[in-house]
Design brief:
Blueprint: E1 3-4, H1 16-37, E2 43-49, H2 61-75, E3 79-83, H3 87-97, E4 101-104, E5 119-122, E6 126-135, E7 155-163, E8 169-177, H4 183-199, E9 206-211, H5 220-227, E10 231-232, H6 233-236, E11 239-240, E12 261-265, E13 270-276, E14 292-297
Helix pairs in contact: 2-3, 4-5
Length: 299
């Protein structure tokens, strides 16, 4: 279901003439030097399993939405790879973050009623150039396909962005949600994701966000993706927050627990900080997962 985005920038006579030309040349040289020395803008990236919108109590979407709004507004990442979001839920989040955010994605059954792996982005900073969604199966172009024994159809969505604040630099973001039940489906999905990443323009930085339903450092999924040339931003960050299990299921948080939600990065990406956001409001968490964030500079 490939789709191009809607956006998706002599000298002449001596003396007097030379003097007139010298100033602009000097100004141009100074501007060029300034551009070379100006710090590159950092990019804030988040991966977040939103927990699908439900009316069931406790932890209904009506209760969680204001907390989600506050968390996302405080964090203000430029890219958010989301998992489990239902169409109306994504519209709610877009409205809560408006007017500066938009999103790209489709449901895993190909419609608007089912869960997606949508990518939100800050329109002040980023412009989409192209995007695609494919199914994690032997038939990735077949909508809703599920050939590896996963409990549900699974998808990945990618977007090629242009960074409006960084000289029009282009980069890819791929976001996914691997199966919670089948390790075989997870490993096959990881291999397909690695294959798709390898087909991207190698000169462009690449970021991968997702709920992988597998612990970092202790699963073949992790090994496959790192073997594809990606690095775990949690490990490569210059600094990081305390570690918590990223799935908590609305139970007390687990310090030092398993990270099943990751932000991975291709070569040349400098990671300044990685963090796990434990924000809650009056005891209410916005999701049954904790969001993972990375502040980075694209190579």
């Amino acid at each position: 279901m490939s789709d191009s985005s809607r956006p998706t920038r002599r000298r002449g006579l001596r003396n007097a003439v030379a003097a007139a030309v010298a100033l602009p040349l000097l100004t141009t040289a100074q501007a060029s030097a300034t551009r070379r020395t100006r710090p590159r803008p950092r990019l804030g990236v988040m991966t977040y399993n939103l927990r699908f919108a439900s009316t069931a109590e406790p932890n209904s979407w009506a209760e969680r939405r204001p907390v989600m709004r506050e968390l996302l507004r405080r964090a203000s990442p430029q890219v958010i790879g989301t998992q489990e979001g239902l169409y109306q839920q994504l519209l709610d989040i877009e409205a809560d973050l408006a007017p500066h955010y938009a999103w790209i994605g489709t449901g895993r059954e190909g419609g608007s009623r089912d869960e997606s792996a949508a990518i939100f982005y800050d329109t002040r900073r980023l412009a989409p150039l192209a995007h695609d969604t494919f199914w994690l199966s032997d038939t990735p172009r077949v909508i809703g396909s599920n050939t590896w024994g996963a409990a549900l159809p699974r998808i990945a969505t990618w977007v090629r962005f242009r960074d409006l604040a960084d000289g029009g630099r282009r980069f890819h973001v791929l976001n996914t949600h691997l199966d919670h039940a089948s390790q075989y489906a997870r490993t096959r999905a990881a291999s397909l994701v690695a294959e798709r990443i390898a087909a991207f323009d190698p000169s462009l930085p690449c970021l991968v966000t997702g709920d992988f339903n597998a612990p970092a450092h202790r699963n073949e999924v992790y090994d496959i993706l790192l073997g594809a040339g990606l690095a775990d931003t949690w490990d490569t960050a210059a600094s990081r927050s305390p570690l918590y299990a990223t799935f908590h299921g609305y139970a007390p948080l687990t310090p030092g627990g398993e990270r099943i939600d990751w932000i991975l990065a291709g070569p040349g990406v400098e990671v300044h900080r990685a963090s796990i956001d434990t924000f809650s409001l009056h005891g209410q968490f916005p999701s049954d997962h904790l969001p993972v964030q990375a502040s980075l500079t694209l190579g």
